[in-house]
Structure formats: structure tokens, C-alpha cells
Amino acid sequence: MNKPTVSVVIPVYNGAATVSRAIESALSQTEPPVEVIVVDDGSQDDTAAIASRFPVKFIRQANAGPAAARNHGAQISKGQWLAFLDADDAWSPHKTERQLQLTDDASIGVIHCHVRTEYRYGNPPPVVSFEQLWWRNCIAMSSALVRRLAFEECSGFDRDPAIISVEDYNLWLRMTARGWRIVTVPEQLCEYTPARLSLTRQIARIAEAELVNVKKIEYDLHISPAQAAKKRIRILEEYGRELLNDRDLRTARIYLGKALRLEPSITNLIWWLATFSPPRLLDLIRKSKSQLA
Fold first, then answer.
1. Whether residue 287 sits in one domain with residue 226
2. What is the rounded distance in angstroms from the CA atom of residue 160 to the CA atom of residue 140?
3. How does pLDDT run across 259-277, given as a tens digit for each residue?
4. Are 116 and 215 found together in one domain?
5. Where are the beta strands (DSSP E) in 46-160?
6. 186 and 65 in one domain?
7. Which of 13, 89, 113, 286 is surrounded by the fewest CB atoms within 10 Å?
8. Where does the chain have alpha helices with state H?
9. What DSSP designation does 31 have?
10. Which domain holds residue 239?
11. Is 1 inside any structural domain?
């Protein structure tokens, strides 16, 4: 039997510092892809000059966001499977080879793997269900190998700029809701660079994207209002605590206050009250906890 074909799609925006590493990792796979497509999403740096040094298909488009860049690359690709790789990430040499071992099952739409980064919630399960995804996204974009048929059936990534940074999460939810299975290769085969949540504006932006995504999924998949409300509360709590940890007390107070109003509890009240504490006191508490750990 012929092995399934894989097209690699690398969206990039001002990625001159990292794109060569990503391309090299795609080209050095022990199970080589049929093509590597680099989609330049309106870069203003030396991305084009760097990418042109490699045997890749290079495409330029006006800046339209990562979802549009991935969709563009997928549209012109020819592989039966689509391997998406962000320009600041990289793969281990055996990534594609390991994932292709699971492609015989026609019900599988996505094959992903563990990533080389700290994931506070532990490794994902062997099969990722809709319910598990709805609780929390555990699939790194650059770890995913996606069946073209499943991708096209779901119309690819949602291009809405309001969900930039969670457009992959939106797709995984829609795919599992349609019955496509997502399975995990239990190996660390991807070196993933997570969003820098130390930047408070980044935390707030991703939180807002998560909230918009809930609204979209609630409408598209007919999620119950109660189920959607629980998800919103969890987002407000988690990102509010991230903002508190980053000492953006004003924004943290807004998020945690909303969570408290939606779900009054002693725990949520304590977190909200913490946003009125002096930063020096919060730093002292953090230091004491780290010493006890």
C-alpha cells in the first residue's frame, strides 16, 4: 500500500528570526512530506529572503491573520494529510513517521502529539473527546496532523480576527462535534513556543478570544446556555488569576468580578478581594508559597 501523503503548511508573519528552524525541521523528517508550503502573511522583515533559501513553495499574501494563511496553504496543497507548523515552533525528526502509523483508521481526523513545553494540566488522553476539549484545549497547533477530508468538511479555520490565537481550538471542537476522532501519539515530538502570557495585554487578548469562541461554538453547535455559562465562568476565573499573577490588578478585578457575579462563591470572592491587595503583599505571599513548595 502507498503511504499517505503529507503537506506541511507554515504560516508566518515577521518570522525572520525563527522560520528557518521551522522549515529545516519539516524538511528533515524521516518520513518526508510531499511539499512544504510557507505562507507569508504580509511580513515586513526578511522572512521572504530567508524562506527562499529552502526548497519550499513560498506564497505571499496581504496580512489576513494566521487562520487565513493556513487556509490558503491548505487550499493549494496536494497531500492527503495537512501538517500545520507555526513559524516559531519545530518538530522532532520522527514526528510525521510516528503519526502516519495511525492514519489507517478512517474515523480519525486529527493526530497530535505531546509537545516539549511545560503543560500544567498533564499530558492529553489517548483519545480526545469533545467533552474533554470543551473543558480545556490540549492540542498544540504545531503538533497536529489533520486529515484533508475532515478539514474540508469543516471548512477549515474560522478567519474571524476576534478569535485569533484560539482558531485552532475552534476547529478541533467543530471536528469532534461532527464525529471525527482526535488521537494522541504519546511522545514529545514537537517543540512548541507558547504564547507569552507574561504580557498582560496578551493575556487579556486571548481571554477575549476565548469568550468570543464560546459564543460561536454555543451558536454553531447548539450548546446549552448552562454549559456555555460554565465555560465562560472558567475562562474568567483562569485568566483573571493569570492577570492577578501578572499584577494587572485592574483588569484582573474586572474578570474576577464577572466570575463572582456569574457564580457567587467564597473562592471567587477571595480571588476578587485579592485584586485590592497591595502588589508588595501579593509578592510576599507568592514568595512564601514558593519557599514552602
1. yes
2. 20
3. 999 999 999 999 999 999 9
4. no
5. 57-61, 81-84, 90-91, 108-115, 127-128, 145-147
6. yes
7. 286
8. 19-27, 47-51, 66-76, 95-100, 130-135, 148-153, 167-177, 200-220, 225-245, 249-262, 266-274, 279-292
9. S
10. 200-292
11. no
How does the average pLDDT of the chain come out, rounded? 93
How many residues comprise the chain? 293
3-state secondary structure of 273: helix
Same domain, 152 and 73: yes
Torsion of CA 142, 146, 148, 151, to 10 degrees: -90
Q: Judge contact between 42 and 62, C-beta under 8 A.
A: yes
Same domain, 94 and 212: no
Please say which residue of 191, 224, 242 terminates a domain.
191
pLDDT of residue 120: 60
Residue type (1 letter), 149: L
Instruction: Answer yes or no: is 12 within a domain.
Output: yes
| Residue 197 banded pLDDT, cuts 50, 70, 90 | very low
**How many other C-beta atoms lie within 10 A of the C-beta of residue 263?**
16
Any domain includes 179: yes
Question: Residue 37 and residue 167: Cα distance in Å, rounded?
Answer: 20
User: Can you give the pTM of this predicted structure?
Assistant: 0.93
**Same structural domain, 25 and 169:** yes
Percent of the chain with pLDDT over 90: 86
Query: Which of 191, 224, 244 represents a domain boundary (last residue)?
Result: 191
Residue 283 C-alpha from the chain's centroid: 30
- Count structural domains, the chain: 2
Contact between 117 and 188 under an 8 Å Cβ cutoff? The reply is: no
Looking at the predicted structure, is the pLDDT value of residue 243 above 80? yes
Mean pLDDT, to the nearest integer, of 227-234?
Answer: 97
Q: How far apart are CA 118 and CA 114, in angstroms?
A: 10
Quote the pLDDT of residue 193: 78
Single-letter amino acid, residue 52: S
Three-state DSSP class for 8? Answer: strand
On whether both 41 and 170 belong to a single domain, the answer is yes
Q: Which three cell numbers stand for residue 168?
A: 485552532
Whether residue 273 is found in the same domain as residue 165? no
